[in-house]
Amino acid sequence: MRAIYFIPAIIWFIISIVLLTLPGNDLPHNSFFDLPFFDKYVHFGMFFLLTVLFSFPFYKLPAKPTAVISIFYKVSFFVILYGVIMEFVQKFFTFERSFDVVDILFDSLGSLAGLFAIRQIFYKKIGPNENRGRNQN
């Protein structure tokens, strides 16, 4: 596994840190963003993508499928932990941002949805008899 595969995940991680620590007044204001619960959808999407991007480099890992799935679960756990930590960062270290338990819920749901998606893609790849890389027709 090459480190270059983690570049999109690291870039998205940095973008998420910037977005989650921007002061509330610096966030763009547009009528599109006035949708009910729009910020919750953003949290869901950010953490979904973060989980998928950090899991994907392990997708082609030449290991037993159970080991790869275990890595996917660990990635999801750490992404959820990151979401909880960022809520505390917003509470104690940023201006005009606040701690929100519902944000943690949507961060977690997004990460779990990303875990589900990458697992489904991975299971379709390996087939029912763990026949990696073979034609499954």
* Radius of gyration from CA coordinates: 17 Å
**Which segments are poorly predicted (pLDDT under 50) over 5 or more consecutive residues?**
none
Q: Count helical runs.
A: 4
Structural class: mainly alpha
Characterization of this structure:
The protein has 137 residues and is an all-alpha fold. The protein is 64% helix and 0% strand. The protein has one domain (3-20, 40-126). It contains four helices and no strands. Helix 2 (38-55) packs across helix 3 (65-93). The chain is elongated and about 45 Å long. The two termini are 28 Å apart. The mean pLDDT is 86.
Topology:
Layout: H1 7-21, H2 38-55, H3 65-93, H4 101-126
Descriptive key words:
137 residues; 4 helices; elongated
Concise overview:
By secondary structure, the chain is mostly helical. The protein has one domain. It has helices spanning 7-21, 38-55, 65-93, 101-126.
